[in-house]
C-alpha cells in the first residue's frame, strides 16, 4: 500500500510544480513583458513558457508590409543572457542581438511582408556545475500605433 | 507550440517539477518578501547525460496575426467599416459546444477589434459583452469581468486604452487556456479569430481584385499565415474538433496554393543600432487570378458561415 501512496504524492508534486510555474509565467508576461513594449500596442498574443539554460525556442511569425513591430523578450533576472536572432526561412540572419549588447527589445520596420523566425537560446552560465536554472521567458509583439 | 523532446525531458521535468514544488514551499516559508522573479526561477541538479539530451530539444511557437493586428491591417489598408459583415450578436445563444464557443470567442474578438478600431464604441461594448459570455462558457475565469466592461465604457473616447483592454482580454483568455492544459481550445480561439479577419478583409473588397490593392495584398499574404494555422492545428490533430478544422483549412490551402508569392530579390536588412530599428525589405511579386480570387472568397465565406451557424 505504501508504494502507490508514494507514487501519488510524487505525481501530485509534479503537477503542483508545473501548474505553479506556468501560472506565474502568465503573470510575468502581463506585468513585466508587456511593459517593455512601451507605447507600442500589444497584439494580444501570448507567447511565454519556462525555458532552461541551454534550451532553444523558435517562433514563426508573418511580419506585414507597412507595419512597425516591437519585439520584446523578457526573462526572469536570474536566467542567463538570451541570444536572439531573427532569421529568414532560408536561414539568412536578419538581426542578431549578440551584435547589440544582447538587447532584448528591438524594432522592425517591414517594407515587404515576410514570414520570419525569431530564434532564442538561453545561454549557459560559465560556472562548471550540473545545476540548470529555469524560468519564464515571454516573447511579446507590439505594433506601432497610428500617429496622432 | 510543440516541443521536440524525447524521454530525457520527461525525467528532467519530473525532477524539475518535484524540486520546484519543494523550492516554492521552502522559499515561501523562509522569505515572504520574495519578488515575483524570485518565485519563478528554479534551480535543479541533473545528471550530465540527461542535461546534454535536454539541450538538444527545441520549443516551437507559431504566432498568428491576432484579431487586433488583423483589424489594424484592414484599417491601414484603407478599408471601410461595414457592420453588416459582423457575426450578429444574437447568434450567441446558438453556441453550446466547446468548439462553437471557442471559434466564436475568436470571431467575436475579431469583430470587437474591428468595431473598436473604427470607433464604433457602442458596438464594441456589446461585442465585448458577448466575448465575456463565451469566455465564461469555456470556464475562463477572470479574463473579462464587470470591471473590464466598465473600464471599456469609461474609455469610449480613448481608442488606445480600448485597444489595450482588448489586447489584454485576448491574452488572458489565451494564457488561461494554454496554462490550464486546454491548448486545443486555445488554438480554436486563435483560428476563429484569424478566419473572421480573413472573412472581413475578403468581403471588404466587394468581390473585386481592382477595388483596393493594399487590401488584396493583405489577403494574398495570408497564404503565409495559413502555413502557421496548419502547423498549429497539426500539433493537436488527434482532437476531433481540431481535425475538423484541419480539414477546413486544408480546403482553403488548395486555393491558396494557386496564389503566387515570389521574392524577386533577396531579403535585405539594415540596422540602425542607435535607434534600435532594423528595416526589412525585399522585392516581391504576387499573383492571383480572378477565378482563384472568386474561389477564395467563396471558400472563406463558406467556412466562416459554418463556424458562426
Provide the residue-averaged pLDDT of chain A: 86
> What do we call the CATH topology of chain A?
Jelly Rolls
Q: Level of helix content of chain B?
A: 55-70%
Strand/helix succession of chain B = EHHEHEHHHHHHHHHEEEEH
With helices defined by DSSP (H or I, 4 residues minimum), what is the helix count of chain A? 1
Structural category of chain B is: mainly alpha
Major sheet: arrangement of strands of chain B: 1-3
Largest interface: A-B, 83 and 83 residues
Number of helices of chain B: 13
Domain count of chain A: 1
Question: What is the annotated CATH architecture of chain A?
Answer: Sandwich
Mean pLDDT of chain B: 84
Question: Can you characterise this structure?
Answer:
The complex is a heterodimer of chains A (148) and B (309). With 148 residues, chain A is of the alpha+beta class. Chain A has one domain (2-143): Jelly Rolls (Sandwich). Helix content of chain A is 22%, strand content 42%. Chain A is built from 1 helix and 9 strands, in the order H-E-E-E-E-E-E-E-E-E. Chain B is mainly α and 309 residues long. Chain B has 2 domains: 2-60, no CATH class; 67-248 and 290-308, no CATH class. Chain B contains 13 helices and 7 strands. The model of chain B is unreliable at 1-47 (pLDDT under 50). Strand 3 (56-63) of chain A pairs parallel with strand 3 (58-63) of chain B.
